[in-house]
Description:
Layout: E1 5-8, H1 14-23, E2 27-31, H2 42-50, E3 57-62, H3 67-76, E4 81-84, H4 90-93, E5 100-106, H5 112-118, E6 124-129, E7 155-157, H6 166-173, E8 177-180, E9 185-187, E10 190-191, H7 193-212
Parallel strand pairs: 1-2, 1-8, 2-3, 3-4, 4-5, 5-6, 6-7, 7-8
Antiparallel strand pairs: 9-10
Helix pairs in contact: 1-7, 6-7
Amino acid sequence: MAATRIKICGVTRVQDAQASAACGADAIGLVFYPRSSRAVTLDQAADIVAAVPPFVSVVALFVDEPIASIERTLNCIPIDVIQFHGEESPEFCEQFGRPWVKALRVKPGLDIGEQCQRFRKARAILLDSWQAGVVGGTGKTFDWRLAQNLLPMPIVLAGGLNPNNVGDGMRALSPAAVDVSGGIEAAPGLKDADKIKQFVAAVRAADQQMETVPNDN
């Protein structure tokens, strides 16, 4: 069984990117959504990316951003993966020549399997919590039972994860990756290195447990 990949999202400081990598994260996320408390400018992003060691991926998060703005970011910052967190269509997501992930906000009635088929060219589907008027960073988990059916593509589990509950989420859904932001922060946008370390340790502990205990889901 492959180790679950770990993304630390909403990084706003060089030291947080360095701490994430030092603790064993596979990717960091940069938020290019001006309304977010974790948004970064192009200058901030450039400084952060310059401090990221080799083989740690950089993910750019956009929310219904205009094409020209996304292209400007991609031209200025060496981005490895794009994460679309709004109402973007598959055709919109496919046009930038980069691997991409599509986020879904999970609530009762959402046909996740149908959405996976719709966004089948994505590298993965990210499952986040739904809250009216909020596109992400809710700090709340969703009902993992809504996503327990076998899905046709890799899943990234997000939404309210922290060191205390990430193992439960992994055991419920066996995701390919987990994505955390607020659950490892001292304040919005300011990561806590000790919490990052605890989160990574919790993921690895769950990985080990899942290797020895069959998953019936």
